[in-house]
Design goal:
Elements lengths: L1 H51 L14 E2 L2 E5 L9 E7 L7 H9 L9 E3 L8 E8 L2 E13 L2 E7 L2 E5 L6 E2 L3 H11 L7 E10 L6 E12 L5 E6 L5 E6 L3
Antiparallel strand pairs: 1-9, 2-8, 2-11, 3-7, 4-5, 5-6, 6-7, 10-11, 11-12, 12-13
Helix pairs in contact: 1-3
Length: 248
């Protein structure tokens, strides 16, 4: 009799678990469908808005909306981002080679912590190749490694490097979407005829004389004009900073 009762309880518990899992699965699917629908609607709105101002937007606008927080970093005194360091063995650099070969080439340069940086083709111009230090998978736009080319070879570099001191006291928040950032810029900041060449999520802060730097999640929006103007949109509160000049 006791075994029969226990068996009945187990069967009912199993059925209840299946119902709960089914509800969670349906809810997740509904969230994904809603996100996809909203993304499609937002993309169509951006297209309409940009067309009305004759502004070109890239086709690959990011759709991710991760949860992020502000961070505090400290510059490492062993690295001077203003000092050019000559390379003992200059090398030829081709950013178009495969990723595997790309990493192998960089590993042989002797540049310290080279694996901590990611190449940024948008700001690499005129024989200067720019890399950003990564925090997780996101670039810290204000912490750079620059490779300088002369006569077809990389002969020197400048390097900044930071240590993350704190992930901040704030809780992680979902960032605003790239579409919201673009809508704000198109409606209020960009001139008619502007060409947006890149939209990238990363970290940005204000560099002062202090060795520490507060950085916050930001959408970097790059323009294809003569000055290479760059706008930063705070990805937590939507505040806009720019334009800044990327070309030197």
């Amino acid at each position: 009799m006791e075994w029969g009762r226990a068996k009945t309880i187990l069967i009912l518990s199993f059925l209840l678990l299946n119902v709960v899992l089914g509800i969670q699965l349906w809810s997740s699917r509904a969230d994904l469908l809603d996100l996809e629908t909203n993304a499609i609607g937002a993309a169509e709105e951006i297209q309409r808005l940009s067309k009305s101002k004759n502004i070109q937007v890239p086709p690959d606008i990011p759709k991710d909306v991760p949860k992020l927080r502000e961070i505090v970093v400290r510059f490492d005194d062993n690295f001077n981002p203003e000092k050019a360091v000559p390379l003992a063995a200059p090398f030829k650099f081709d950013p178009l080679i495969s990723k595997g070969s790309f990493r192998d080439v960089l590993a042989k340069t002797g540049i310290p912590k080279i694996e901590s940086y990611q190449f940024d083709p948008m700001t690499s111009l005129g024989g200067t190749y720019v890399f950003h230090q990564l925090y997780g998978t996101l670039p810290m736009f204000d912490v750079q490694l620059r490779l300088f080319e002369k006569n077809g070879q990389i002969t020197s570099y400048q390097q900044g490097y930071v240590e993350v001191q704190s992930d901040g006291q704030q809780k992680e928040q979902k960032v605003i979407t790239a579409y919201i950032a673009l809508r704000s810029l198109i409606e209020n900041y960009l001139p008619s005829g502007a060409v947006i060449t890149s939209v990238r999520l990363g970290y940005h802060g204000q560099v002062y004389n202090s060795q520490t730097l507060n950085m916050w999640p930001s959408w970097r929006v790059s323009l294809g004009n003569a000055d290479g103007d760059v706008y930063y949109v705070h990805a937590l509160n939507g505040a806009v900073e720019g334009p800044q000049k990327s070309k030197k």
